[in-house]
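Hi all, long-time lurker, first post. I run a small reading group and we've been trying to get comfortable going from sequence to structure in the token notation. Rather than ask abstract questions, I figured I'd post a concrete chain and ask someone more experienced to write out its structure so we can walk through it together at our next meeting. Sequence below, copied exactly:
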Amino acid sequence: MSKQVAYLGPKGTYAEKAAHILSKLANFQTPIFVPCNGLYSVIKSIAYNNCDAAVVPIENSVEGGVTATLDALWKFPEIFINKAIVLPIKHALISNGKLSNISEVLSHPQALAQCSEWLSENLPNAIPLPTNSTSEAVNMVKGSKFRAAIGSKSLIQIEGLKELAFPINDVPGNCTRFVLLSKELNSNSANIASFAFSLISNKPGALLKAINNIADFGFNMSKIESRPSKRELGEYIIYIDLEINNQNNINNLLELKNKLKPLCKNFVDFGNYFSENIELD
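-- Answer (accepted) --
Happy to help. Here is the structure in token form:
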């Protein structure tokens, strides 16, 4: 049976590229790709069993963690990360009009943020307008002479528009990590372990005690990030990625988690998975 894979649509987004690549790496046979409107809708589609898997961005090298994804993973602890890829992101400015006539620039908030310096220097008077996706932004500028969208160059061919500038992202090495989500724990090879926790008490040294446990077991943290719990001011959720590079790490991982859990009010394990860098043509 073909697996249904949800992703942030519509067609033409980097998320769609990531969905195709991750489905191939997961050996899905003839997957059916389901574009969704908004990241939360993507994750709800798997949380409520409307799809078999989902592909979402989780981290950008410029803007950091994708908060909608992190919050959803905490909210739905039955969802696990199975695989991850890192895609290079190169944005184009796309429009029907001329650069000198552009007064509004539309795109996903992450894309707008990743190009903020370029926009400030080249279109200082243009109003940035957030959309649900880069592809949606391109659809919204068709036929307009004063609107432009930020998105992948592949959208130019799809929509019959033209490139006004490329690349316009502020950092040349801009890249995004996309993850494949499912309700099954990955049992294959892994080089990252991800989890999140909230502490029992907000006291001096409480977080340090948890971090020291990680160091004592010989793990290197490749990411540590905090998000508000949304329950009360000053209460945070800590998101952590650990590098797994040998069998000893894997053997110590369960013991580490058992050490951490007594320190935590809540502990959510996102699973162990393999992440790799992908070069796009």
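A couple of things your group might point at:
The mean pLDDT is 89.
The chain has three domains: 4-89+174-182, 92-165, 192-277.
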